[in-house]
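Re: the 295-residue chain
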Amino acid sequence: MDHHMRGVEPDHVTTLRERKGRRTFRLQVAERALFAKEIPLPIWRKRLGALLGIQHTLVGFDHGSAEVDNTLTLNARTGQGLDVLCVGERMSAGLPTSQVLIQPWLEGWIGLGDAFDVADEHERHSLLYRMEALLKAMHDARICHLDINTDNLMVSTQDSETPLRAIDCAKMETKVTQPALSTALQIGKMLRELYGRDEADFTTRYTQARAMQRRIAGETGINEATDTLLALSLRYRLSKNLSRRKLVTTPFVNIDGPALEKRVRASKKNADMPAIVWNQDHPAMADEAPVYSSS
């Protein structure tokens, strides 16, 4: 990898993807394939965070040192992450300017979204069951991925019983104080990504999400706050308009659904979605009014 980053192109290093300054690679070392990720550190505060191994607003949450710590924590608490083989750093003036993370290669694994697209009804049920099991493991471990999506949950194509694995843990929060809220955010986003945001399908998805929430978090883990977050995350993209990290680590829960919806609808990505019908400060239930409006 060092030769590759210096401009030499060894035959055993294959570039897989370049996105937002980050590159991923497949390495062939003897008979073994490995995965590598280059993580640039363009600003000094992230370089300091990476050097000290600190995750904080001031020094960033998504440098390579954070990803190593989060990846190891996830795997230790749930067994559904990946190992870390090594991390290397390129230094300048005593600070890392980039880091390279090397992990095992998941041969025969694909993203959940790709698996779901080609699955029949029975296979989709199995995938949802395994996704729910992973979300429950995260709930019980008080972990919120914060970058969960259909590409970051991996599915074995060789064994339909193998548990899913979560990857790309740089933004992960491992000290969740509100696991029920964390679970609601993750359920809503995953169902939205798997099924889309079709208005005609929302009542079904909302019912499905609440059932998942109850199975994962129990009766005490489903309430007005979780109902609100399930509805919002099913309908809207929240990451740019809501501090989910702050929400899942707060000691007290005080969620104003209509106010949060107003904030997230300010985004161009959400403005075209129909507004939610609210009963005071939580989504209206089926016996109160239609859960979602059609206007």
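The longest strand covers residues 95-104.
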